[in-house]
Amino acid sequence: MTWRLGVxxxxxxxxxxxxxxxxxxxxxxxxxxxxxxxxxxxxxxxIRGYSDVIAGQFYGHRHADTFRLVYRDGRPVSWAFLAPAxxxxxxxxxxxxxxxxxxxxxxxxxVLDYTQYYLDVANARSETHWAIEYNLTQYYGLREVSAxxxxxxxERIRSSHDSLLFTK
Length: 168
Fold this sequence. Notes:
Elements: H1 2-14, H2 37-49, E1 57-59, E2 66-72, E3 75-82, E4 98-104, E5 111-119, E6 130-135, H3 136-140, H4 147-159
Parallel strand pairs: 1-3
Antiparallel strand pairs: 2-3, 4-5, 5-6
């Protein structure tokens, strides 16, 4: 934990961006349930405490395409993107392999957008090709990728009676 705090504190001192990579598994903060409740509480405490440094969290191989938000005092302060897996779930599965390409600002590290691709293995005859499923900002009409904009999107989804929001 001391190492992590040092890595997260360094960008605050230098006014730059920070990067911490989690190498194994997912995290309960992302809805995966791999962490104990105590470890998840520590992770959320860390994310909340360093939300000015942590751009967001990226999780893969969840067999789901979703996002999570982290709140502090009722205000959204961070986000986690959960990308689909490159492998389908298995025999009889309806999930297609997914691949996500993120667009970053190379100077700030800020996530600007992402494009979600899929491979339609169920309808493949001989040769398969990755196809664009959607682009985050275009599809959902977002001006930016931030905890605030994703919170507004989540509210739109929760209260939506607009079936066009869910056409994919």
